[in-house]
Model the fold of this input.
Amino acid sequence: MGARMKLRRFNVMGWIGPVFFGFAALGSAHAQQALSAYKVGATLAMPSGALNNLGQVAGFTHKLGGYWPSTGGVDVWFGVTLPILTTSRSEKIQPVIWKNGKPTLLPRYWGLYDALAYQVSDNGWVVGTSRPEDQLYGLRTVFTYKDGVIRVMPDVNALVPGSFLRLVSVADGGAVLFYWTVFGRGQEVPMLWQGDTVATVASLLPVGTSKFPDGSPGPVEAYDMNDKGQILAQIISAGQKNVILNPVAP
Done:
């Protein structure tokens, strides 16, 4: 009995030993693959966080305008206010593309104000937002820029009454993925814009792609889009499924 117990201990250790030391050797091999060192490069004033493979960064810069008179007041005694004349200076936000720390100003669309660039694709498609000059808190307008041409997104309200929520991505072909909030329902809908066409992502899929067990239409979420126009999405089909949506050539 004692011999059998001793034999079993030997076999167990004989199995664990090579596995343990094998993992140790594997860890040691990985440890030898050191990460590349980094150094600080260009300093950017106001990037929006999008960096493409060419080293271009979408962003914006402030541009001060002229002065104009305005009125104010100074509280001099128990609620008694003395009116005074002051001056104010206009300030606009200009979209730029940063490269090697230097900004390239993008042209302004004539009807827009406070334009910001958010994303830039690897072949230079820039997407950003702006607002009308006469609307301090107005609905933001989405625009793209490529090769000196500004394009402004068509009126989405004609298709889905609501307001712009956020940009997601821009592809090399100029397609823009963004989210739109539907008025009255608070529903966030992913949409695509390219050329003169704006559509919900769900409407571009075959009928029934996303549906609940009772057959009613299910939601479509869109998380990201790469330069080829492929979309990382989530649909309802026998449960939630994360899928890649591939563009189909017309």
